[in-house]
Amino acid sequence: MPKIVDHDQKRKLIAESAWRIIDTKGIEHASIRAVAAAAGVSPGALRHYFSTQDELLLFIVDYYLTRGADRAKGIEISRIPMKAALEVVLELLPTDSDKRTAAGVWWVFAIRSLTSPALQDKKDELTDGLHDLSRSVLDILAKAELLPSSIDMELETLRLAAVIEGLTVLALLRPEIYAPETIERIIVRHLQELCGHTVNE
Questions:
Q1: How far apart (Å, rounded) are the C-alpha atoms in residues 5 and 33?
Q2: pTM over 0.70, yes/no
Q3: What percent of the chain shows pLDDT beyond 70?
Q4: pLDDT tier at 144 (50, 70, 90 boundaries)?
Q5: What is the DSSP letter of 199?
Q6: Torsion sign across C-alpha atoms 180, 201, 88, 77
Q7: Which terminus, N or C, of the chain has the lesser number of Cβ atoms within 10 Å?
Q8: What count of other Cβ atoms lies within 10 Å of the Cβ of residue 155?
Q9: Helical packing angle, 32-39 and 7-25, nearest 10°
């Protein structure tokens, strides 16, 4: 009787095995052979799916993005606009172990994309996605009439995206300083400055 292959489980195993190598040893050590050995599959089987290291990295990014999106679906956002805006932003930041892993994957990918044409399209897609999410946060506040009429939505979208990315990097580099509660205080202050209200209102 042929062996039943659980492709979702194999996908999980390959992605997480590859990330452990990248996280502990660096991306240069995440060869097809090394990842195959860590995942318990043959190099030939892995090369059937990934012919290059960049293809493998794209796979890892997609795996962690999908996992994060699935988790986000189960989160109930507050009906209070200011709290909803805060909750959406915090969901994008590395405030727990799962989101720290996803952020680490993203930054390895982002750095690699600077010198890899094969990763450019995905890099653009992901940064565009961050801008879209940042704009959606501002839209929540705008629809509740919490933003001043003179606000430059395009500029504030870019500024919020920059705040999110900056905090992501700093939280990865200095987690003892940029702890989850500190990150939340910074975002609260940013929203307060935008709206002139407290998030409890």
A1: 21
A2: yes
A3: 94
A4: very high
A5: T
A6: positive
A7: N
A8: 9
A9: 120
Hey, what amino acid is at 39? Answer: A
Under 8 Å CB-to-CB from 133, ≥6 apart: which residues? Answer: 88, 92
Alpha-carbon distance of 179 to 173, in angstroms, equals 11
Q: What is the pLDDT of residues 8-38, one digit of tens each?
A: 778 788 888 888 888 888 888 888 889 889 9
Task: Tell me what percent of the residues of the chain surpass a pLDDT of 90.
Answer: 53
Give the residue from 134, 138, 149 showing the smallest Cα distance to 81: 138
Coil, helix or strand for 32? helix
Quote the tokens at residue 130: 């961050």
Q: Is the pLDDT of residue 199 over 60?
A: no
Contacts of 125 (CB under 8 A, 6+ apart): none
Ranges of beta strands (E only) in 117-163 are none
Instruction: Pull the structure tokens for residue 108.
Output: 């390895």
Give yes or no for a contact between 89 and 160, defined as CB atoms under 8 angstroms apart. Answer: yes
**pLDDT beyond 80 at 198:** no
